[in-house]
Amino acid sequence: xxxxxxxxxxxxxxxxxxxxxxxxxxxxxxxxxxxxxxxxxxxxxxxxxxxxxxxxxxxxxxxxxxxxxxxxxxxxx
Length: 77
Fold this sequence. Notes:
Helices cover 18% and strands 40% of the residues. By secondary structure, the protein is an alpha+beta fold.
């Protein structure tokens, strides 16, 4: 499953807003430096979907506020 994410880094608090089934607006306190904001985004999406963060990866938009995330169905141990 793919998710479209719009991110605002350096906000006052972490917040996730689901716009549609596969589109989220996310604000994170972490700054967009040293991959900190991306890690916060993955953590927030994992908490929201109630899945481990290891099942989520950023496939597009590593250096952009608009991101595409891939969510695997299972860990595939």
